[in-house]
Design brief:
This protein has about 210 residues and is α/β, with parallel strands linked by helices. Helices cover about 55% and strands about 10% of the residues. The protein has nine helices and four strands. Strands 1-4-3-2 form a four-stranded parallel β-sheet, sandwiched between helices. Helix 7 links the parallel strand 3 and strand 4.
């Protein structure tokens, strides 16, 4: 009876988490007036073709991150702990970073815990969109709460003080809310450190 009670409670908690995750993803899409990329449906773990041992390791790490996502979220809710493990994918063009990021989000869709993908240039363009009157505070709040956030093309933005501040607010807010973030960039570590402030980098490393 005790096992059945625990199983029932976890099922109810999962259903609540899934409903919240869907609502947050939809709410962020509406707030940013942004749909998923047109090429989102093509990449997945099954058609990622690793060409080196390092790429095989990357695939294994990303797959494990995605497959264990629901269990980690349940543990976080059960113990009210801060579970903010994320990923930093960096390397040259054409090494499959965005492919793996898409694949993670598609696996989270399958689990009923949809995340959100956006490039940094697109995000900052939309935040500064005066035509659609974007509510920046509302968008930042939603970015900090979506189940898993992928921020792609870090380093393509201008890198001005306001952008660095916004990026810090997003990463810091997600850490405080126990939400994992996936950062994707073509910069190496030293270039990333030069672009971002020490304040942002310290949060990324954490």
């Amino acid at each position: 009876p005790e096992c059945r009670r625990i199983e029932k409670e976890r099922a109810e908690l999962l259903a609540e988490m899934q409903a919240d995750a869907k609502e947050r993803a939809v709410g962020l899409t509406r707030a940013l007036h942004c749909e998923r990329p047109l090429d989102f449906d093509v990449p997945c773990f099954a058609n990622y073709q690793p060409e080196t041992q390092e790429e095989e390791r990357n695939l294994s790490i990303c797959r494990r991150f995605a497959e264990r996502f629901t269990e980690r979220e349940l543990e976080r809710e059960d113990w009210r702990s801060k579970n903010f493990m994320g990923l930093l994918l960096f390397g040259n063009y054409g090494t499959g970073k965005t492919h793996l990021a898409y694949s993670i989000l598609k696996e989270l869709d399958r689990q009923g815990l949809p995340g959100y993908y956006i490039t940094i240039p697109d995000l900052f363009d939309r935040i500064s969109d005066r035509v659609n009157r974007i509510d920046v505070a509302d968008v930042l709040g939603k970015l900090c709460m979506v189940s898993c956030l992928v921020l792609d093309e870090i380093g393509v933005q201008s890198g001005d003080a306001d952008e660095k501040k916004r990026l810090y607010q997003i990463i810091d807010g997600r850490i405080k809310n126990g939400r994992p973030t996936i950062l994707v960039t073509n910069l190496d570590r030293s270039e990333l450190e030069n672009l971002l402030t020490e304040r942002v980098i310290s949060r990324v490393i954490q």
